[in-house]
Amino acid sequence: MCGRRGGRVEADELLVLVAGGDQKAFEELYGLVSGPVFGLVRRVVRDPAQTEEVAQEVLLELWRSAARFDPGRGSALSWILTLAHRRAVDRVRSARAATEREQREGRRAHHPAFDQVAEEVEAGLEREWVRRCLDRLTALQRQSVTLAYYDGYTYREVAERLKLPLGTVKTRMRDGLTRLRECLGGAA
């Protein structure tokens, strides 16, 4: 059936039989190559749990893809160890990429500490700028805008408080807001 060397069936011959679906040949091949596969994967992956997982994946792949083995291109053991090395390197790269993704997400999710002093200074500067712009309005515009935006009155309530027609208040508000927008536009 198979040639033997020193009481051992050659891996090349076993792999050819495995390609034909011979389960007994796969058991023999498994016994022959599982140690070298595990050792190679262990040297590349280093983590014992992942080493076992990758070695198992390699041996399963061996059963599924034995038909791709070409004895004319090299020995079965070389081919099997090449499969093992590639799978182990893929696992290391995948783990490294996952770690880098997690680190990027961590950096992206990290918000700089809130700087209360800087926020207060900036708010103070903005209030001062708005105050200066309000001072550029006419007294009537400033009064209407202040009642509406700082005191929270509606246009109708501003008109009632100032005892002015609603249309007059709306005109003052429109003109005042236009001047404010122009003035504050220089702040940006």
From TrEMBL:
The keyword Transcription regulation applies. The keyword Transcription regulation applies. GO terms for biological process: DNA-templated transcription initiation. Keywords: Sigma factor, Transcription, Transcription regulation. CDD domains: Sigma70_r4. Residues 34-96 form the RNA polymerase sigma-70 region domain. Residues 127-180 form the RNA polymerase sigma factor 70 region 4 type domain. One of its GO terms (molecular function) is DNA binding. InterPro entries: RNA_pol_sigma-70-like, RNA_pol_sigma-70_dom, RNA_pol_sigma70_r2, RNA_pol_sigma70_r4_t2, RNA_pol_sigma_r2, RNA_pol_sigma_r3/r4-like, WH-like_DNA-bd_sf. It holds the Pfam family Sigma70_r4_2. Belongs to the sigma-70 factor family. ECF subfamily. This is RNA polymerase sigma factor SigK.
